Amino acid sequence: MGTRYAAKDCMQSCRAAFAPIAKGATFVPSPLVFSGKRCIIEPKNLTREQEEKMMMENDLGRDKISRLVLRIALPSMLAQFVNVLYSIVDRIFVGNIPGTGDLSLAGVGVCGPIVTMISAFAFLVGVGGTPLIGIALGENNREKASRILANCFAMLVGISVLVTAAVLALKGPMLRIFGASDQTFPYANAYFTVYVSGTIFALLSVGLYQFVIAQGYAKIGMFSVILGAVLNMILDPIFIFVFHLGVRGAAMATVLSQAASTAFVLTFLLKKAHITITFGGYNSRIMLRVLKLGVTPFLIIAADNIMLIAMNALLQKYGGARGDMLITVNTVVQSFMLLVTMPLGGISGSTQCILSYNYGAGHSHRVLKAEKYIMALCMGYTAILFILARVAGDVFVSLFTTDPELNAAACRAIRICTLMAIPLGAQYAIVDCFTGMGQVQISLPLSFWRKAVYFTALFLIPTVADASMIFYAEPISDIIAPMISVPLYFWVIRRILRKRESYLSSAPSENPAEGNEK
Q1: Which segments in the chain show pLDDT lower than 70?
Q2: Residue 159 and residue 219 in contact, taking contact as beta carbons nearer than 8 Å
Q3: What single DSSP character describes residue 298?
Q4: Of 151, 301, 346, 440, whose CB count within 10 A is highest?
């Protein structure tokens, strides 16, 4: 195998190439060949583990923290941004179906929270398993990491089958309860039936993506998401307008795109990843540990979608004749909020692998430094979206509708919902930090505190004000939650890290090499 390095990195590259000698590996280096400003180093007879280490995109235990955070966070953020973009494009095409655009968009909006709730099962397993794998890798226990991945893959497949059967059996009552009116039900039912039939692809593409990122392969993870997103944007107009399939065509495009992402990421995890999917060794204790950690992101997503469902129902109930119009407004608003929350989650969620690995290895200084950069990146991103909501909100809304009343209402609602977007960045960074270190007893209450505030505001506001004021529930929860999370983080983080260091110092000496930052 040959690896190319820039000349300025040559000294570092030579050290890496010859390092196996110190570990007793059989190693025959070929001559160093210089060409211009580059050199080629061709180490031979490396063990499989050493070759994999050299091919990995990021060394979670040794790379410089600031660069490591950026190299992992930015591709993940971009991937989620593109992922949101294809969801938005999906709704834009639906909203522009001749004659039925607004009703079709409202029908898809009713499905949105339920569809996202289904995907929460992918996070239950994916985000539940990745901290355990990261900690195991930090402990230099590859066999343990492999067992965890095998169990997680089996869980994703099993849950996909169960969820598909259950949701298809209950889809009619679900859609009615979640806000579908007589006018929007046919469109919601058509979209939902096709989408739910491809649940296994939705769960595997999202769930397995987490295990790619957990091993430091940020660019591979980004490509898997972008592949599905681009394919969906190509298929959407073909199925909707060329084949005249309407909302059913939009759902078909989404399912096929998710199938393509699943095929790509599954191939990578079966053949090329540092920790690959294996079969057998299934263990109920491992599965329960995954579920225990995954319950935080699962309940966060589930609660978010219950809130959206409740919001649609309240808008329908208190909106009177404007009920369907307000649900359409909410569909547009939530599309913009996806631009805030999904790339934000891409930053805080993908960088969990840095935190879990270094927590597992006992590198407390790297955990603290990484979290500092992660929080700054999260709040910087939400600051940009706060500004965009005010200067380009009307441009965004105009992509969905040309109705003047709908346009004005949606622009106003977007500005309201993003009032406290910047503190929301800190909330995401802190909750995912504790989750990444396996501290579910802290991350879960912090998440539910924000949900409790949101629910309280959501149900109180329409009883004392106009239904359109419901949108203020978002900024109220976004500012009150960090008022608890931020002080708590600074109060407990060093205690947690000291406890981990103490555990490792008293454990048998099979921990990984020290992670001195370059």
Answers
A1: 1-57, 507-518
A2: no
A3: H
A4: 346
Task: Report residue 434 CA to chain centroid gap.
Answer: 16
Query: In this predicted model, what pLDDT tens digit does every residue of 351-383 receive, in sequence order?
Result: 988 999 999 899 999 999 999 999 999 999 999
Residues 327 and 311: beta-carbon distance below 8 Å? no
- Asked whether the beta carbons of 386 and 421 are under 8 A apart, the reply is yes
Q: Residues for the chain: how many in total?
A: 518
List all residues 6 or more positions away from 303 whose beta carbon is below 8 Å from its beta carbon. Answer: 447, 448, 451
**First CA to last CA across the chain, in angstroms?**
25
Beta-carbon contacts of residue 353 (< 8 Å; ≥ 6 apart): 60, 72, 130, 134, 213, 214, 215, 216, 436
The 10 Å CB-count burial string (b at 16+, else e) for 98-111 is: eebbbbbbbbbbbb
Among all chains, which residue has been given the structure tokens 């299934």?
Answer: 282
Instruction: Write out 473-484 in H/E/C secondary structure.
Output: HHHHHHHHHHHH
What count of other Cβ atoms lies within 10 Å of the Cβ of residue 443?
A: 24
User: From its phi and psi, is residue 70 left (phi > 0), alpha (psi between -120 and 50) or beta?
Assistant: alpha
Parallel, antiparallel, or unpaired: how do β-strands 3-6 and 38-41 relate? antiparallel
| CA 488/CA 390 separation, integer angstroms | 32
Q: What residues contact residue 511 under an 8 Å CB cut-off, 6+ apart?
A: 139, 140, 361, 362, 504
CA distance 400 to 495: 49
User: Which pTM does this prediction carry?
Assistant: 0.72
**β-pair partners for 214:** none
> What letter represents residue 163's amino acid?
V
Q: Which residues pair with 38 in a beta bridge?
A: 6, 35
Cβ-based burial of 92 (10 A; exposed 0-12, middle 13-18, buried ≥19): middle
Calpha distance 102→40 (Å, rounded): 59
**Strand, coil or helix: 38:** strand
- Half-sphere exposure (CA, 13 Å, Cβ side) for 382? 28
Instruction: Provide the b/e sequence for 147-173 (b: ≥16 CB within 10 Å).
Output: bbbbbbbbbbeebbeebbeebeeebee
The string of DSSP codes covering 251-264 is HHHHHHHHHHHHHH
Q: In the 8-state DSSP scheme, what is residue 508?
A: -
Closest CA to 429 of 361, 490, 475: 490
In sequence order, the 6+-apart residues with CB closer than 8 A to the CB of 203 are: 118, 119, 121, 122, 156, 159, 160, 163
> Is 329:406 a contact under the CB 8 Å cutoff?
yes
Residues 83-129 pLDDT 10s? 777 777 777 788 778 777 777 877 787 787 778 778 889 888 988 89
pLDDT for 3: 41
Give me the amino acid identity at 124.
L
| Residue 201 CA neighbour count, 13 Å, CB half | 22
